[in-house]
């Protein structure tokens, strides 16, 4: 497996009424294979835009993305996506959703079946294989989305607020699941979240972004993800450094949010 | 007048049944489910369920009104009927020298539908003979007449009397009451008037029921239905007429869907097609298919071809627009997810866009089928050899109202069944609809 290079990315959206939004400016990052990086930042700072560029859904106005030796030009199966919600196919049952990637490659069900079954077991849905998507709870749906992404064996998994629509308890369980899957599969993961706690728990590396223009504000290397694998995340949260780092980052984001508010008020 | 009366009865019955059911029989029909426990229903559309008791009552009421306001033989409550039987009245003619004379007129009002009633041998009964009368004394002569119910009759004073208008006499009294020209008196069984020229004129009381010409009784409509089934109308049985209409609709709809859906997909998927077809679709969309009938007849004649092309055009735009909005309704996350899972463009189309647009396409199909069904009837009204529309049009020219009613009821029922059928297919093919 190979690392992900985000090389001096800038993104400008030209608005229909003239003018433009500088969503990202000179963002450079190097993500090693198997790294789990969480991304935090006030809303509108370009997190989704960055992820969409990495996924290949958007072409940056400047810079390029490289996965190993290959320059990214569009979406591809080596970069899997997990969305916040609504990305599952309602016309297929759970098993068909998870088998979608192998099916598209032309892999026979006979061949992909055991892997799909295993993944469904890992995410705890072995008894729901034949269920329709709309019969599942939000948490179960996100587990299907995770399994579907993993079944396709991507090198990099991109997650845009994957747990954002879940209730607190389900969310905690899912955080453990993400950590376990990360350890088990050794995938490179970029996870966007707006929860500081989640970013701390799940990020081996944590990236704080600042808005207008979207850029990297600060980077942390954190021990909590490794501590959390196979352990109770509540114990991790009781770690002394955890609350210190959390307060520091919260303060940082507060400041940014206030600055945005101030600017908006000044503009009015 | 009768219409207004019917409407008021209907509205009154709506409220009456509502209050009766509310206080008496509500419990019988209320389902015990989650919705029934909602306390706020007024304003919560999802909590409003059709009260099936009301539906049944509503249909029964329409039937009862139909019976009550026609000359049905069913033993159910009836509105006042038209007068039938014998009446007798006198008119007084005043001669040029002031001499007066009375004449008695007997009128037999017979059931209008007498020619449809069979006698015991199964033969139609003849128009009954005039009541016996003798001319009597004086210059004004007694007379007798027969008149059908809902009819009217001028009394032939000019032909009967010895001294008439030409001789300087004029009718001055009806039943002993002085009446001016243009005036009238009510007698039992009808109204008696003098025309502007002074001729007595009898109109038997029509009552509140509608004549067969306007609204045939239910049992007559039913027997007509059976007869149409067995013998047919205009060389084709009812089934053949129905099938002719249905076939046109199905063919037109199928062609419209076969072309319209790919067209809509193309418009939803590529800039060029969107730009190319947009003007045509947006222009044709508001043109009602009925407005195309004359052009279709000019171009393709009055045969099957022109009708199927008309229905094809009626369905085409609706299906194209439905498919287009089905494509634009795909959540972009699904498309992105599919690309990230390695799907090719054609796989995206088959596995994501087509299934995702099915709900819209089914909605479009329901609209298109409704429009096609309405259009085929209209097209057949204009020109056709067979079909339900043709049947009711031709029947109306011969004032065969019962055939018209049979046709209308069939058209309604079939249109409803088509819709039910599409909804049924929708539940099978789009089980997730409304659940996400
Ligand atoms: N398609 C677009 N057109 C114009 N502006 C956009 C578009 N997508 C995103 N933006 C702008 O780019 C900025 C970053 O957006 P986004 O990446 O969605 O932020 P985040 O995910 O961090 O909340 C925002 O100011 C947003 O308004
Ligand atoms: Mg976002």
Question: What can you tell me about this protein's structure?
Answer:
The complex is a heterodimer of chains A (268) and B (436). With 268 residues, chain A is α/β, with parallel strands linked by helices. Helix content of chain A is 41%, strand content 24%. Chain A has two domains: 34-57 and 73-78 and 157-267, P-loop containing nucleotide triphosphate hydrolases (Rossmann fold); 85-153, no CATH class. Chain A has helices at 47-55, 94-98, 100-105, 109-122, 138-151, 168-185, 196-202, 224-228, 233-237, 240-267; strands at 4-14, 20-31, 36-40, 62-67, 70-71, 79-82, 156-160, 188-192, 205-210, 215-221. Chain A starts with a strand and ends with a helix. Helices cover 52% and strands 11% of the residues of chain B. In chain B, strand 7 (184-187) and strand 8 form a beta hairpin. The chains are: A alpha/beta (268), B alpha+beta (436). The interface between A and B is medium-sized, with 32 and 23 residues. The structure holds adenosine-5'-diphosphate and magnesium ion. Adenosine-5'-diphosphate binds at residues 13, 21, 23, 41, 43-49, 214 of chain A.
In short, what is this structure?
Chain A is an alpha/beta fold. Helices cover 41% and strands 24% of the residues of chain A.
